[in-house]
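The material for today's practical consists of a large collection of protein records. An example says more than a description, so a record of this kind follows:
***
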Amino acid sequence: MSDRARVMALHGGVLLALLAAHFVLPAYHHGNMARIMVLASYAMGYNIVFGYTGLLSLGHALLFAAGMYGMGLAVQHPGIGAGGALVIGTFAGGALAAALGLLALRTTGVAFMIVTLMFAQAGYLSVLYFADWTRGDEGFVIAHASRILWGIDLSDAGYRYLAAWVLFALVLGACLWLVRAPVGRSLIAIRENEPRLAMLGYNTFRLKLMAMTVSGIIAGASGAAYAVLFGYAGASFAGVEYSILPLLWVLLGGAGTALGPLIGTFFMFYLIDLSSGVTTAYMLIAGAALVLLTLFAPQGMMGELRRRIWRWLP
């Protein structure tokens, strides 16, 4: 079997397994998996910037929240339907990512990380400042009528899971295409040796800006989907935690692997969920597990599989 066939079989099998889980999971885990697929889509967008291009951003909460509030405010105030609001949220994430990239990509390394974090914090403070619109820390619930798309009630658990699965499948397919296309290879070359790529005549600034914008579009779409599927938009999703979480998910699952964000999100979500049922110091257990995983699987779970067994993993 060729490497391309192996890639299609593995990722297609994962999608089929997630679809089959819709019919067999109990209600609690059914809802959890829908949430995990949306958050994993967000992590896959982050993986384009961090895992493939090598840019350590701490500003992605700004893009996720832009999608969430773009969608939520569009239905809350002008009364736009769910379909139009999802488009607005996705566009908001992409537009903010492009603007952030134009400014932040003038820096490199630690400076880039700090600049992106500063912009994300500015976004968080803006959410709190314009509390008349955003309801500040409290956030706001999205009305049931605004969660109906093409006659489909996305507040229903079954349709919500399927919508999350469609989002995840689209993002996974787009990421697989991108990393195997010439432009994706160029992004990986930036991560490995940017000066050499620039010497060959490539416009690395333009490529990095493209990666930021695509990542922002995915983050915005994920934030908008989270808002419509779970019916809530809140300031906590704009906080620094939601810039750090996708970094952890990608590192745990395997930076620069297509399925790493899903594995990392699933592992982290259930690690915290199960630990919180045992002790109030659940983050101590989660932290210990993260340290052990970092020591013994430094390339993440999928990264270690690629290094040791499946070298064809994208």
